[in-house]
Amino acid sequence: MEQLKTLTSLRFFCAAGVVMYHIKQPGDAFAFAIDSFNFAHLVSFFFVLSGFVLALRYQTFDSAEQYRRFYWTRFLRIWPAHAFSLFLLLMLVPEVFDAKGANFPLFVTNLALIQSWSLVPKVYFSYNSASWSNSTEFFFYLLFPLTIVGLRKKTLLTCLLVTMALVVPLIVSSLLSWPHFSLLKFSSHGLLYVFPLTRFIEFFAGILLGKFWLKTAKSRPLQLEAFTFSHLTLATMLELACLTLVLTTSYFSNPLQHSLLSYVPAPLAFWFSNCGLPVLGWLLVIFCFAQQKGLVSMLLQLPIFIYLGEISFTIYMLHGVLITWHEVYAPHLEGALFTVAFWIVLILLSHLVSYYFERPLRSLLLTSKHTPENQSTVALKYSGQWFPLIWRLTIICIALQVVLPHHLYVSHASASATDSAIDSSLPRVVLGKSQRYLELCSSKVTRLANGLKIHLVWQSHERGPVDFFETVVVNDKDGEILRSQTHSMDVWKTVIDPASTWVEDFTIPVSDPSSSRLVRISLVARKKPVAILCPVAQGTRLQDYALLGVELCPL
Fold first, then answer.
1. 64-88 burial string, b = 16+ CB within 10 Å, else e?
2. Rounded distance, CA 141 to CA 130, Å?
3. Is 300 in contact with 289 (CB distance < 8 Å)?
4. What pLDDT, in 10s, does the model give residues 374-414?
5. For residue 487, is pLDDT > 80?
6. Mind listing the pLDDT tens digit for each residue in 273-282?
7. In the 8-state DSSP scheme, what is residue 190?
8. Residue 29: enclosing H or E segment and its boundaries?
9. In angstroms, what CA-CA distances link 520 with 67, 456, 476, 504?
10. H or E, element range at 472
């Protein structure tokens, strides 16, 4: 297979977009500009590109050796970086055990890369939350050989099954009364945005593009010497047009989702805006840039961009670890200088992990598993022995997902049942008159050795998007600010149905927790970012497990 350097470089720019979205600082103009685009579209790029590249590299599966080699190679492609980032997170931020509700079954679920097979956000966003997409990708790898063989033998049936894998979850999500997002319950977000079967159609679209590419390999559409203007100019115009299409769909996807709510069920509007809409744009981008003929492609083929693209997967895996460390130990670091320093540390660490851990380990294990070319192999056809083996492996993985975090669900169910009883005698606070659909049902504060652990239970009263910055301020007995921390609400950028509830658990570092006497919370609309805190009401003195003094600021 020819090396498509431009697509390697594009991987870095999409990974960098995800990183910039996660490290943006609420309230500044840069964050406001970022929030104008739907960065969920970048995940679609990786899914489509993965299917495209694998379709070019693995065109048939006719022997046991081919299956074995594929699964072993794919496993070594994603698991070492995933395992390294997971253990690095536990070493750098041991508090993650408390903050994320960790336990051994959940840890094993993450280590086995099957957390996205759950529909509970507390599971698929646990530990290094960015790894949910790798868990979904792992599922794609399991089905890829079957898909390739199925397209060769039963094309229409394979396409129908993939379509049904999307249609059925859409119907289920529309019929069931699951909340759009709830940390402790099954959610339509988990079913439509995270669950691998639902997102398999994006990977499948990449496979179809790869097969189309192979059929047109000898007659590229961009070979247009007959045109009066230069080939280079045309190729550059097409590249810019594809990028413009991607940016445009990303910018208008959220308004489009809200507009579609009047015509189609909410799950379909959500899926189309975040998963379905970007696929066509990314297919065009991948096909156009794979030609490697325009000025933009020439720029992407610079060695620096190719190098960054080669370590982009490690960048993606490690950025969540560094962000978690920053939120727990150094939330006061902010501004442009922090962003530059963050990128320097991230790229340097990614280089070290990629070149001195991942690649040597992959090379060692691939060499040890290498089978000589003259060694005989037994051909296992689609209808033969290998087909049931794949499904047995899939069933085992699903069983692990169900069994391992079982007591996690049980404990969460118990916690959810008692949430409504916490501080029920104290008054509840509802958002201002202009947007009366959020309510703080209960709250709890626990002093830790190095800070305060905040537990908030929210509920919606009307259908609408949750689009707020949440600012928490800790004061001492004299009213002096000990710590101020701003972050996005857990369900940001999602449309919440009436009566939906969700829980927020986060830790605020405080040098002397015993001196804390008052915690204040403000909600500020993203559409109108402000540089100062909204006024907050005077609350009760802070005691362990006491209600916070809260005022929610309206739009």
1. bbbbebbbebbebbbbbbbebbbeb
2. 18
3. yes
4. 333 333 333 344 445 555 555 555 554 454 443 333 333 33
5. no
6. 889 899 999 9
7. I
8. helix 29-34
9. 57, 12, 11, 15
10. strand 468-476
